[in-house]
Amino acid sequence: MAVLQDVRWQPPFAGSPTSLQKLGFNIATFGGRLDMSNRRGQNIAVQYRDGTLWTPKDYEEKELELAMWVVGADETTGVPASDPESEMWLNLEKLRRLFVTDSELGFLTYRHPVADKDIVAQVEVRSQIDFLTMAGATRAAFIVTMHTPGVWFRDPGFVGETAFTSRANAEQWSVTVDSDVMIKDPVIFLKAVTGTPSNVQIFNESLSPADHWIKYLDVFVTGEEIEIDVGKWRATLDGTTRVTGNVDWSGNPQFFWLRPGQNDLKIEVTGGPIDVKVAAKGAYW
Q1: What DSSP string describes 114-127?
Q2: What are the chain's domains?
Q3: CA-based diameter of the chain, in Å?
Q4: Most buried residue among 74, 152, 171, 184 by CB atoms closer than 10 A?
Q5: 241: helix, coil or strand?
């Protein structure tokens, strides 16, 4: 079994993550890390038709359990303190403060043993944490239960297209993504370098049925950049102004996925060309 590597927890509004694997406290087991989530939804029974009508299913959130221990030793050196009981309580209090999240989402990061890269998930601590002391009150054990509303651990950075490319009306091209992930929800970047392009429509022709598209309805001003996050269904202008209301789509917008391998795309644009970049973050259990 692969060794659990570099698990870090970053509470909401914290400037940097804290390692949960130190010599004064550590993780004994990481439950739920490799489990697949249940699927939500059901097929539809249609009168006078055998079987059922298949419908797409969505994954439910995951539950993760960090079984941890803490001792009365220096967290960096592992040297037992002169007063190990007091040191144990100091370490315990530090962890307790880390896991109090005030109903906000924090970030849990660890190094994926197969992909050999850091992956991160937004999680929340919802359950009560019970601390059990033992061994003369110099050692404690507890379980932190976390939930992942977004289901997946994600690549911190983007893959796919890493640079803008000018695209003309009716142009076709392909975007290739790694095959070591399950699903990639793309982010579509559009930038008007010259002119005032409008009605920019991106088709994903690799999906079936072939009617998956995202369209920005407004007119660009030269220099403007639009970011359309398909996974979160959010569009922003120049990184600040929300313009999601100016976006149209066919069917469920989150079905505009980039699959592992080659993805064939096409653009339609009025008054083009326009610079386009389609990137994504890999998803891992």
Answers
A1: TT-SEEEEEEEE-S
A2: 8-154 (2.40.30.200), 159-284 (2.60.120.860)
A3: 79
A4: 184
A5: strand
